[in-house]
Design goal:
Layout (H helix, E strand, L loop, with lengths): L1 H29 L8 E8 L1 H12 L9 H7 L4 E12 L2 E8 L1 H29 L8 H12 L3 H8 L7 H8 L1 E8 L2 E6 L7 E9 L2 E5 L16 E8 L2
Antiparallel strand pairs: 1-2, 1-8, 2-3, 3-4, 4-5, 5-6, 6-7, 7-8
Helix pairs in contact: 2-3, 4-6
């Protein structure tokens, strides 16, 4: 079973990277050459696939449970974490930056992920109860009462406490994204030098500025274990141009 999950993950990574490479190449040739990057940018880091794969792996360890990755992704949609990036240009190719993961966005995403996971798990539980010959009511209210009686808490709270970690921790994300310092651009390469004390000292990304979008390719930057952030470009939307 673990080998099957591993093969599914590797296939998804290969397809994602291939599509991302073609997408980035297209944007590179179609984007403007505007080197002006100053402004407040916001990206939505999509955690849907990572949460779905993690939940699926955990569920498939339970005997008799049959669920596909596609079904799990349908349950878990639009799981995004907001990242803010502020760039202040001091010359044509240099400036300062500040980047941070929004904790409120992270908390909301994590809550939504476990709520979706709980809904899927409750459906599977009802199916197993029916197969076992359970004759009691299985409407939403009855199932909630049965779950609290059995587990001592609502299903989402139980999964948060005893289930898998659907998302990387906030600390892992902050280690990968948060920080301030100086940057410089050259030939569509954005190099950020972090202030002393940051876990990451230098980040090098290929970038494309296309209208109100800033696309950063993170393929050459190491991510913490279990954090799938280097599979595809991260697209930042311009929220407010620099004064």
């Amino acid at each position: 079973m673990k080998k099957t999950i591993k093969n599914v993950i590797l296939t998804l990574l290969f397809v994602t990277v291939s599509i991302s490479t073609v997408f980035f190449a297209y944007l590179y040739h179609s984007a403007s050459d505007d080197g002006e990057l100053a402004g407040e940018w916001t990206a939505s880091l999509d955690m849907t696939k990572q949460a779905a794969v993690t939940a699926l792996s955990w569920l498939q360890e339970i005997e008799g449970v049959s669920v596909s990755l596609e079904e799990m992704e349908v349950c878990m949609q639009d799981l995004c974490i907001q990242i803010n990036l502020t760039l202040v240009q001091t010359s044509r190719s240099q400036g300062t930056f500040h980047c941070n993961v929004m904790q409120e966005s992270y908390d909301a995403c994590r809550q939504a992920a476990y709520a979706a996971f709980a809904g899927a798990f409750e459906e599977l539980l009802a199916e197993r109860l029916s197969m076992a010959g359970y004759t009691g009511s299985m409407d939403e209210e009855a199932m909630e009462a049965l779950i609290i009686e059995t587990f001592g808490m609502p299903m989402d709270a139980y999964l948060m406490s005893y289930g898998p970690e659907l998302l990387p921790s906030l600390e892992e994300l902050q280690t990968h994204y948060d920080g301030s310092g100086t940057y410089q651009t050259e030939g569509n390469i954005l190099t950020r030098q972090f202030d002393g004390g940051a876990a990451v000292t230098t980040r090098v990304d290929y970038y494309i500025r296309k209208d109100a979008s800033l696309i950063l390719s993170e393929g050459n930057n190491a991510a913490p274990a279990g954090l799938s952030v280097d599979e595809a470009p991260v697209v930042y939307a311009l929220q407010q141009p620099a004064n």
